[in-house]
Amino acid sequence: MIAHDGMFIDGAWRPASGTDTIEVLNPADESVLGTVPAGTAEDVDAAVRAARAALPAWAATPPARRAEYLTALRDALAERGEEIARTVVSELGSTVGFARAVHAGLPVAVTGSYAELAATFAFEERIGNSTVFHEPVGVVGAITPWNYPLHQIVAKVAPALAAGCTVVLKPAEDTPLTARLFAECVAVAGLPAGVFNLVTGLGPVAGQALAEHEDVDLVSFTGSTAVGRRIGAIAGGAVKRVALELGGKSACVVLPGADLPKAVGATVADVCRNTGQSCNALTRLLVHADQYEEAVALAAEAVAPYVPGDPEDPATRLGPLVSGRQRDRVRGYIEKGVAEGARLVAGGPEAPEGREKGHWVRPTVFADVTPEMTIAQEEIFGPVVSIMKYRDEEEALRIANGTVYGLGGAVWAADESTAVAFARRMDTGQIDINGGRYNLRAPFGGYKQSGVGRELGEHGLAEYLQTKSLQF
Fold first, then answer.
1. Which residues contact 401 (CB under 8 A, 6 or more apart)?
2. What is the number of other CB atoms lying within 10 angstroms of the CB of residue 64?
3. Cβ-proximal residues to 152 (8 Å cutoff; 6+ apart), any chain
């Protein structure tokens, strides 16, 4: 166990203002990995003041030079890729293969993409007799979740830095060790003091202090819709900008004529990815009545290889959930599904065999799920898929759009044009067509209560810019 101390403020590690600490647990066996300081409003204030002081010089730094710093940060992250992956395995419970490819690998690619954008984006343009400038919004308060601890940091910090903003980061208290590694990479990359600052702490204390701080110009938050509402209310009262990436209850719609085995297999894999702890997971599988029982059998077959196991073993495909709180939440939803009459096809609320200690759940498939059931409406955030029946496309659309969320989705059809026509009618922010590949420059974000704003690519950069026009 390592007792980490200090906050990364104004380019250096400095003692926390208080003595309270946060224990970081290994979700596989509940052992204590270490502790980090529980930051206070005083720590947040020091970090924001450092960011404010660094803002004028960083905003005036030529974009090409900011791109060089981001390239150096990308290289520092790549250099420590294996250490990052192992840290995510230990504090999140991610399987090691997924940690290497996604938790460590994707942030390197995203940081590189913003290095390229910083060098090529048109921060100045001519429109008629006006010159339009795209300028940094100012000091950014970034509050990130535990489910993709480094990716969500990079998805906020990299575009903010590319735009010329300075940043104060408050990472999730469940996964702060990865955030400390990121701060160390920032130092290696040589960013000027105060451009990036890190305060670890609890959401109701450090997170709220950051959102409320009068010198924070934009709050970028990823997490639950309930907390997003609170941050939105705080920001609204101060007339400051927000970017909110919130919950999801994404639907995968399989239209008649689609490759059913491929669609079902891909959906089950998506729900089990990161042990179901993905806000855009395809947790609702919608299948035509004529193919429904075939889809149920295929899902039961597809989920069988996802046996909970040691996340450090490369052969393991499903690790634990991040915390006991999350484990109990997911098991509670499974129990609710059974109680409300859904048919349990695979899994269940009991602990996996031999996994009584740790934050484990069984990958679960429900059939005969109806739209009004709790498991069809609320975000579970675990490896649980609900298979739902429809009789025509209009009913499928009503079911797909019938939640308060609208973050992700998928459509499978016999041909691309049919899938696209259906997807255009879905009220959601990002939709995969027939298993379309991930695009790290495509805008990511939600409709309805799934959030406000977009991340990644040029749309993600635009969140951190404000516009000024000069007429002459």
1. 426, 427
2. 10
3. 144, 145, 222
pLDDT at 356: 84
Residues 6 or more apart whose Cβ sits within 8 Å of residue 242: 218, 219, 220, 221, 231, 232, 235, 452, 453
Which one of 173, 185, 279, 379 is the catalytic residue? 279
Helix (H) or strand (E) holding 380: none
d(C-alpha 354, C-alpha 366), whole Å: 23
pLDDT at residue 1, rounded to an integer: 82
Q: How far apart are CA 423 and CA 452, in angstroms?
A: 20
Q: Which helix (H) or strand (E) holds 326?
A: helix 324-339
- pLDDT for residue 336: 98
What are the pLDDT digits (tens) for 190-237?
999 999 999 999 999 999 999 999 999 999 999 999 999 999 999 999
Bridge partners of 408, per DSSP, are: 430
- Give me the residues of the chain with pLDDT under 70, please: none
User: What contacts 384, CB < 8 A, 6 or more positions away?
Assistant: 271, 276, 283, 330, 333, 334, 337, 347, 363, 364, 365, 366, 375
CB-CB contact of 331 with 348 (8 Å): no
Residue 2 to residue 26: CA distance in whole angstroms: 13
Element (H, E) at 182: helix 176-189
The answer to whether 245 is a known catalytic residue is yes
Q: Give the three-state DSSP class for 61.
A: coil
Contact 167, 51 (CB under 8 A): yes
Return the pLDDT at 272: 98
What pLDDT, on a 0 to 100 scale, did the predictor assign at position 403?
Answer: 98
CA gap 282, 436 in Å, rounded: 14
Q: How far is CA 287 from CA 13, 254, 390, 431, 461, in A?
A: 54, 5, 6, 17, 37
Q: How far is CA 216 from CA 44, 141, 243, in A?
A: 11, 6, 13
The single residue listed with the structure tokens 């109701």 is 204
Compute the half-sphere exposure of residue 420: CA atoms within 13 Å on the CB side of its CA: 4
The token pair at 169 is 């980061």
Q: Which of 91, 245, 379, 455 is catalytic?
A: 245
Task: Report the residue count for the chain.
Answer: 472
Q: Which amino acid is at 225?
A: T
Its sign, for the CA torsion 267, 268, 271, 274, is negative
Rounded CA separation 91/94 (Å): 8
